[in-house]
Design brief:
The structure is a homodimer of 245-residue chains. Chain A is α/β, with parallel strands linked by helices. Chain A has one domain (3-243): Aldolase class I (TIM Barrel). Chain A has helices at residues 3-14, 30-41, 60-72, 87-100, 114-123, 140-143, 152-163, 180-184, 204-211, 221-224, 229-243, and strands at residues 18-22, 47-51, 76-83, 104-107, 127-133, 146-147, 150-151, 167-170, 191-197, 215-219. Chain A is globular, with a radius of gyration of 17 Å. The mean pLDDT of chain A is 95. Chains A and B meet through helix 3, helix 4, helix 6 and strand 6 of A and helix 3, helix 4, helix 6 and strand 6 of B.
């Protein structure tokens, strides 16, 4: 079963397109803290995204325990690595991700090797998401860089689709970044992982109406920093479901 | 003392501009294996670069033991993360790198936030190297992408220098990638970390003649996969020193 198939069947089972992004702060018992959040939000979410930058201190066993708890709660596990290296070096990260049990991994297109990365990820039975559009203001120069006379971010989308990547990553549109028209113009039929959905989440509505259950709506801090992560996850899931057909 | 100052004083002390890149394979006792290589090459090298893709399984304690052994042998420790995220997320990696004891870290310019990354790395007392030129053939489209009418890789070099990054990363020139003229045209006064130096290493000669001890000459597989890593490190160091003034 491909990651895309797993996603759609999980969405039906959970009645949710919510992905909870977890960026654990520096602490003792980090794995336990992650697992508590995971168990709390499980009734309302279809996936958990763990950002690799925040778990460099965890041993493989601890990372495996986190992933096992995600699967035990019927959710999918995404490793947010944004890896951007070449050949065998990227493959090392795919290998680790697979051993840890993740279902998919995120990759940066910076080295230009999208096709190679998709092949290597799939060889390791991992779904792969290519980072194409970030929401920080400094990304503007990169997204508008010209590759073969085409805007770079659009080139990355096309390469991702041509290579058979399971999905792309696009930062949530907001008042600040005004990415909404660009995202709405994407013709690809892939999944779209959307991090950066905050307390408002207004613009995600339009994305869900346009792309349906291909949107993986990632909410991070607003849920994992909440006093009651379960209540917050429920609130977001209800909000997202109100926009689904 | 800045990383650049640390580099130049280590180069004098060790009479070496060799950096040994270590990509540990999947194994039991990975930290011990790394430490053995580190001790073997220590008489002939000024720095060790550990690629983060290969050590996702290590606990913080194990990573700290590796870094301690690098320092105990009088070398500098570079964490090759190629991190490419934004704000507080990149900062998490800098924070981990600092706690692990690394002296410097590598960063991808993909999110466009070079200035922010330099600030955050330095706040964590880490030197920072920006990836500007990769040696894989697929990188050609990225390096030639146009940003403000300028080739992207050159834009990244200029941004790195303007932001006060300690160095840049450029893949070693070879028969295949023909990067030599581009690298030789770099006007920046920063350090230049050059991975991808193989058994031939011919073209590094020209780089050393041009940039002197600002070249951090990284040799990986040829040394750590050798039957006698110490002898191989000595061979490379002698070769590199023959090109130094």
């Amino acid at each position: 079963m491909t990651f895309t198939e797993q996603w759609h069947s999980t969405v039906i089972k959970k009645n949710s397109i919510l992905c909870v992004g977890i960026d654990p702060p520096e602490m003792q018992n980090k794995a336990e803290w992650c697992i508590n959040i995971i168990k709390s939000v499980a009734p309302y979410a279809a996936a958990i995204k763990i950002n690799r930058n925040f778990i460099h201190d965890l041993s493989r066993k601890e990372t495996q325990q986190i992933v096992q708890s995600i699967h035990a709660s019927g959710m999918l596990a995404i490793s947010d690595n944004k890896i951007g290296d070449i050949g065998s070096t990227n493959e090392a990260s795919f290998h680790h991700g697979a051993i840890e049990g993740f279902d998919a991994i995120t990759v940066s297109p910076f080295p230009g090797n999208i096709a190679e990365s998709v092949q290597n990820a799939h060889k390791n039975n991992l779904g792969i998401f290519i980072l194409v559009l970030m929401s920080n203001p400094e990304f503007t120069v990169i997204k508008n860089a010209l590759i073969d006379g085409k805007k770079a971010w659009r080139y990355f989308v096309e390469q991702s689709q041509a290579a058979g990547a399971d999905g792309i990553v696009v930062g949530a549109p907001s008042e600040k970044n005004k990415n909404i028209d660009e995202i709405m113009s994407i013709k690809s039929q892939q999944l779209i992982l959307v991090p950066g959905i905050g307390t408002q989440g207004g613009d995600v509505k339009a994305l869900i109406e346009c792309f349906g259950d291909r949107i993986i709506a990632n909410v991070g801090r607003s849920i994992f920093n909440a006093q009651d992560p379960a209540a917050e996850a429920k609130k977001y899931n209800d909000m997202l479901n109100a926009s689904r057909i």
